[in-house]
Inverse folding.
């Protein structure tokens, strides 16, 4: 069992280097298995195929991020919408959690964002935007229900969903230091929340 665990771990480590250098499409399973001191059969044993191996690199960090996002969505929907007043810093906890999860394995996240072409993970940013838009729609409808004088701006809601996801993507791909990323994202979060309240609901 220990040997199997170590073999799987070694394959993931070597795959991460190969995917980072060459991307999913050009990565060689033979090169990965050779670097790990194993046969290509070991890759098929542990991961079934190339997509499975790619998932071995990116699935765990992606799941941690999705858990953080879903937790935030749940908290949003439990907010006292009628009485909510935004104040600077009231989303700092979420911002810090997201940066912590994104930078816990930054290389894996960079692979997911920039090296996934041809894999089943291609277009992951668009899928995250779609999930954000579903949440924004539900939240906007909840606001509109208690503020009948407000109307949802569908275009701005769609646009903001892109901006919210891309704020974190841009930070991850342009800022290497986690501590700086935490500092940079907090005013961005304040701006996004204030703008959402102003422009998504008219």
């Amino acid at each position: 069992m220990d040997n199997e665990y170590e073999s799987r771990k070694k394959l993931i480590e070597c795959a991460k280097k190969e995917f980072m250098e060459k991307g999913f499409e050009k990565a060689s399973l033979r090169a990965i298995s050779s670097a790990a001191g194993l046969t290509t059969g070991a890759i098929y044993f542990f991961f079934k195929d190339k997509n499975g191996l790619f998932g071995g690199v990116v699935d765990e960090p992606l799941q941690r991020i999705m858990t953080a996002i879903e937790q935030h969505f749940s908290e949003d929907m439990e907010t006292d919408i009628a009485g909510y007043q935004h104040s600077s810093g009231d989303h700092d906890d979420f911002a810090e959690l997201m940066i912590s999860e994104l930078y816990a394995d930054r290389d894996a996240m960079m692979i997911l964002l920039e090296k996934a072409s041809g894999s089943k993970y291609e277009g992951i940013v668009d899928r995250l935007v779609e999930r954000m838009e579903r949440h924004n729609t539900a939240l906007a409808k909840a606001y509109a229900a208690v503020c009948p004088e407000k109307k949802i701006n569908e275009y701005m809601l769609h646009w903001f969903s892109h901006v919210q996801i891309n704020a974190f993507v841009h930070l991850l791909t342009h800022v290497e230091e986690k501590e700086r990323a935490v500092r940079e994202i907090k005013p961005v979060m304040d701006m996004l929340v204030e703008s959402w309240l102003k422009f998504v609901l008219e």
